[in-house]
Design brief:
The chain is an all-alpha fold. The chain has helices at residues 9-36, 53-75, 82-108, 113-136, 142-164. It contains 5 helices and no strands.
Length: 183
């Protein structure tokens, strides 16, 4: 590991904390965006179109991607591993939501809105913490930083494709109606 830049830990912490607030606020609003837009299909890749777990992952993913674009310039030269840090944070927050949702519903036998909202909050904070740790840690391999964003792009493509043509497995099934994809 190389030491990298002289890291601004306080600045990175501030940006990741603000990011958590942004992701939580925008993510919460995204839950209703497709209905607010009266089913406008151009918004479908970015907002949940039904009550499936997969669709709800968009609530963390897209706001985190937007936040990454907003904080890139202010953190440039002030933190290490920006591409890797943000990619790891985005993927941790997004997919830990699904993992923890299925874990708790397997234990309880049902889901509740209160637990779902708490998980969203915890997973967003967790993803931002992972990002912070990588931003303020030792510089990683240039290839890690170069290729990490490809994973975010791949997930973005999957969100778009599976919104319109979802696989018929439980992750994509609307728990209220038993249907898949756009109603």
């Amino acid at each position: 590991m190389r030491p990298g830049v002289d890291v601004d830990r306080r600045g990175a912490a501030r940006w990741e904390a603000l990011g958590a607030l942004f992701i939580l606020g925008v993510g919460g609003a995204l839950h209703f965006a497709f209905d607010w837009a009266d089913g406008f299909r151009l918004i479908a890749p970015f907002a949940p179109v039904n009550e499936s777990v997969w669709e709800h992952l968009k609530m963390a993913f897209w706001p985190a991607v937007v936040w990454t674009l907003l904080e890139r310039r202010p953190l440039h030269g002030r933190a290490n591993n920006f591409p890797l840090a943000r990619t790891a944070g985005i993927l941790v927050m997004t997919f830990s939501i699904a993992i923890l949702y299925y874990a708790y519903t397997a234990i309880l036998g049902y889901g509740t809105l209160a637990i779902d909202a708490t998980l969203f909050f915890i997973c967003v904070l967790g993803g931002q913490f992972v990002s912070y740790r990588l931003l303020t840690g030792d510089e990683r391999s240039p290839s890690h930083n170069r290729f990490a964003p490809a994973f975010v792009v791949a997930v973005a493509v999957l969100f778009t494709a599976f919104t319109f043509v979802p696989p018929h497995i439980i992750l994509f099934m609307d728990g209220l109606t038993g249907t898949y994809g756009i109603p």
